[in-house]
Model the fold of this input.
Amino acid sequence: MRITVTVDGTPYTDDVEPRLLLVHYLRDRLGKVGTVVGCDTSNCGACTVLLDGQSVKSCSVLAVQADGQQVTTVEGLSVDGSLHPVQEAFREKHALQCGFCTPGMIMATIDLLADNPDPDDEQVRHSLEGNLCRCTGYQNIVAAAQDAAQRLREAPATTQGGTR
Done:
C-alpha cells in the first residue's frame, strides 16, 4: 500500500506492506533508531512516538494507519540544535540510567504536558504507567517531568518543538 506520512517535519511517500508496524517503518525505512523496539507487544512503551500530537506505542500501530498524519519521534524534538525542554529536563535531572526507555518516556511526558501543563507527582506517575523502566525507580523521571512542566510554562511556544 502507498502511504504518505510526515515524520519530524519531512514528508515521505512509500509503498509498505499492510502488516508493517510503524516502529519498523520508522527504524528500518527512515532510520529513526531513537524509536526503540522493546517488547513488540505494547507493554514497555520504549517505542512511543507522537501521532498527530498524541502519544502512541508505535509497535501497536500499523504504518498504513499513519497515512496522512504527522509523526514526531525523539529525533524530531530538537529545534536548531537545542534540546526540547523535556529532553533537557531528563538530562539535567538524571532521569535515565541505561537509556533504553528514555525516548518513550520523553514522548509520553510531552503528551502529558500538552494536556496537563501542571501535573502533580501522582498524575505524572499515572500518565507514565504504560512506559516501563527497569533501572531508575522512576523518581528522577517524575522529577524531570515536573521540571519540564515548569520549563514549558516559562518558555515561549517556539522553543517547544514537537508539542501540540
Remarks:
- The beta strands are 2-7, 10-15, 48-51, 54-57, 70-72.
- The mean pLDDT is 93.
- The helical segments are 22-29, 85-92, 102-115, 121-127, 139-154.
